[in-house]
From TrEMBL, chains A, B:
Keyword Protease attributed: no
Keywords: DNA-binding, Repressor, Transcription, Transcription regulation
Gene3D superfamilies in the record: Tetracycline Repressor, domain 2 (1.10.357.10)
Organism for this UniProt entry: Streptomyces microflavus (Streptomyces lipmanii)
Transmembrane domains' residue ranges: none
An annotated Gene Ontology molecular function: transcription cis-regulatory region binding
Protein name: TetR family transcriptional regulator
The keyword Transcription appears for this protein: yes
DNA-binding region: 30-49
Pfam family, one: TetR_N
Domain HTH tetR-type: 7-67
InterPro entries reported in the protein's UniProt record: BetI_C, Homeodomain-like_sf, HTH-type_TetR-like_transc_reg, HTH_TetR, Tet_transcr_reg_TetR-rel_C_sf
Length: 192, 192
DNA sequence: CGAAACCTACCGTGCTACCGGTAGGCGCGT
DNA sequence: ACGCGCCTACCGGTAGCACGGTAGGTTTCG
């Protein structure tokens, strides 16, 4: 029972950390703020995660499990049609989007603990997307690009849209815009 | 001479600030680090810019002048072909790209002093792009999108590519990828 | 002389992290 | 059955540092 309670606590803490990072970024986040949100003192929090950085990597690993686990096949093999739904899903989870957009932004700075994570993650995701595209369209997409080159753009559009959407949700229809892009990739439809 | 020297100093300071933000982000940047880089004490620095935030807005205004001034017409009317060159130019200025990518990332957090700047800036840039696209292609792009919808994607691709490129410059050919996207926008070429 | 351009000294705050507790539960030997 | 010791889950105190910012000088130049 104590063990279960402990796991539960850790999950609470991770959720709270996610929120706090969404609000202030990693550098702006403080152990005290996270602790307060789960009803602990800062010292109690450090009992579960020995350092601030440990907390961050736990959040990152959590995410990693989540979207390599739910993604279907082994190497992040998203079905192409499902990508649109993913974006729609994200549009309903602004906190998570904010967290990872903030972290991505910070991660390009020096010695940031999330940098390696994101670097590796993006190469994986690009490879996965490229594989999916190749499986679906062969070596040349309808738009004329190779799967690898299209994959870079696909990822770029997803990230870039998130920033515009976070800054001004009213002005940017994220899922719609992503759909537009998918349309471009698929090339000009023959009939109607 | 003192006046000239002063202006010169301020320019030095802004350049140093840009560098420090590129390395540590705004929140991670410290007045001491900026001061050291221009050979001042932290208090000497505060003589020129009374607060840390004043320093940031100066950097932002500087950028604003730069790329509304150099952009050609009034409302950021970039010629479409020049966008490719801009991306190539950026690929040679990693420090600036890093600075603004880091700031963009931070700006989605709460109470960030750059948030309003980015929000306004993006609406402007989108509008400018849309105007350019409309001038060049009319109300429907070859790819089938309206100028406004294409503008969102254009901006998203530029930003998204920057992050991938900053994290792994070897793996991502930023100008090439952007060229690919422009190709998609322009739709399938008729002849060859 | 007077203003601009600094510097030295200092303050208050906030943050991470360590040290040393304490309270309760649980196994274990006798 | 029961007490002993250990483990988990915390909290109070605080060290140690870095940061942003203020106050008040001092040099330097016109």
């Amino acid at each position: 029972m104590a063990r279960a309670r402990s796991e539960e606590r850790r999950a609470e803490i991770l959720r709270a950390t996610l929120e706090v990072i969404a609000e202030r970024g990693y550098r702006g986040a403080t152990l005290g703020a996270v602790a307060e949100r789960v009803g602990l003192t800062q010292q109690g929090l450090l009992h579960y995660f020995p350092t601030k950085e440990a907390l961050l990597v736990a959040v990152l690993e959590d995410r990693d499990r989540w979207d390599t686990g739910g993604g279907g096949g082994e190497e992040g093999a998203w079905r192409l049609e499902l990508l649109g739904s993913l974006v729609e899903y994200n549009a309903m989870r602004p906190v998570i989007v904010r967290t990872f957009s903030a972290l991505l932004g910070e991660s390009v700075t020096e010695d940031h603990p999330a940098r390696e994570f994101f670097t590796r993650r993006y190469t994986q995701v690009r490879a996965g997307m490229a594989a999916t595209l190749r499986a679906e369209y062969g070596d040349t997409l309808p738009g004329g690009l190779s799967p690898e080159r299209a994959a870079v753009l696909l990822v770029a559009v997803m990230d870039g849209l998130q920033y515009q959407w976070l800054l001004d949700p009213e002005a940017v229809d994220m899922p719609g815009a992503f759909g537009d892009f998918l349309g471009l990739l698929k090339g000009p439809e023959a009939p109607s």
